[in-house]
Specification:
Layout (H helix, E strand, L loop, with lengths): L7 E9 L6 H19 L4 E8 L3 H9 L4 H18 L6 E4 L3 H16 L3 E11 L4 E3 L17 E10 L5 H10 L4 E2 L1 H12 L5 E2 L1 E2 L7 E2 L2 E6 L1 H6 L1 H4 L7 H7 L3 E5 L3 H14 L7 E5 L2 E3 L2 E2 L10 H20 L6 E3 L1 H30 L12 H18 L3 H22 L8 H20 L5 H10 L38
Parallel strand pairs: 1-2, 1-12, 2-3, 7-13, 12-13, 14-16
Antiparallel strand pairs: 4-5, 4-6, 6-8, 9-11, 10-11, 14-15
Helix pairs in contact: 1-11, 2-3, 5-6, 6-10, 11-12, 12-14, 12-15, 13-14, 13-15, 14-15, 15-16
Length: 503
Amino acid sequence: MSDVTNPYYVTTPIYYVNDAPHIGHAYTTITADAIARWNRLLGRDVHFLTGTDEHGLKVQRAAEENNCSPIEWADRTVVRFQDAWNQLQISNDDFIRTSEERHYAAVQKLLQACYDNGDVDLQTYEGLYCVSCEAYFSEADLDNGNCPIHGRPVEHVTEENYFFKLSRYEQPLKDWYAAHPDFVQPATKRNEALGFINQGLQDFSISRTSIDWGIPLPWDPGHVTYVWFDALTNYITAAGYVDNPQEFESRWPAIHLIGKDILRFHCVYWPAMLMSAGLAPPERVHVHGFLLVGGEKMSKTRLNQIAPADLVEDFGVDGVRHHFLHDQTFGPDGDFSHEGMTARYNADLANNLGNLLSRVTTVVTSKCGGVGPPANPDSPLAEIVEEEYKKIADGWARIAPSEALDATWKIIRETNAYLENAEPWKSEPGPAVDAVLGDALEILRIVSILASPAVPNACSEIRRRIGLDADHTQQRLPDSIKWGQYPVGLPVLKGDPLFPRFK
């Protein structure tokens, strides 16, 4: 487990402004948000970054189609992501746009460092280009002549470009992977990145002359920076690479969360670029699979994109967050369905967490005069909390939210079973009933902390109903979940169902 005294810098990919936010974007962003929230509970200095990629050919073309300038188009469309993340209560510390001045400065500084190191030269390039990917492909890469990622036709492009000498970094990258076996996770994706390196690395284009929407090369302003050199640099821009060197030294390197379609750029190109500039590669890159709908990758052509707002309307913010964190295991491809989401909502949120809160507050109101009794110091639930906390902490540390939530919900299920066995609602008020209900209230207090990275609204409401300050963000682990901290004599409130069950 990482040292909690060290800063924790976690990032999502930056998303293209001419895309509409869909649940694939939400999946990565919710995961990063939960990881950030967990590490804040540990007391770490967390910096959580997301943002938008606003340069490149496809943005310029979209602007032309909409009779506006690229920056006007970017300003118009970036709000879709900002609004979506606000709705999902994403707690990012920074939102970067690659059209910002600070980013221009960082890209030019990184480019100049690579150029000064002799890793950039001018070449004429001819190849097959996918506008959606902003990437070149060989004939062998194509799927029936189409881009293997987007299924769209590629364009034949001939252009004089500056190239980054990726081939010089084949052995340094192999050495880095050997010295850092956890650099790319899971292992299958690490092997995929190594396989790409072992095939032999080709230099790649880093500039364009055919477009003007982008960041000029510092030594040749007639060339505009190609999207991947531009986009990837956002991670160090936001870490203070130009404007705050002291902060950058403390914050960098980052932990990146990405989808598998951009593995090559983050796990091969990006560390090589950083090495060239004399900077450390990222700490780790965690790669997840595609989020499938009915077994197919989401795409506009298949008309199966799902907006996060639509799901929030049906399931609420916490329902959406819990589903993606629990049911979409980070790493392999996941398959989304409304049926699966409904089943998870009913099982975990309505039947377990919501039911626990409802039955405890109801019985405390009827048997204890609405005042919470203390927990039993020798409660069997205390041992369960201690045992499951180790699994919870390990799951979040490894970016395995589904495992962390499994362990969290085991505490909830065991508490419901404890109540079922004791049946305090059938007993006369007295010490025995107080002990059982005190234990359950203590569990609710502890769960309001442990579950908060996934379901922050519910955890705030739980705390309010059992008489605590609703703000769970000021709690610090592991001290805050030590048994027996629920104060004596707090007012306990009944209320509407926390998660109304879907019929």
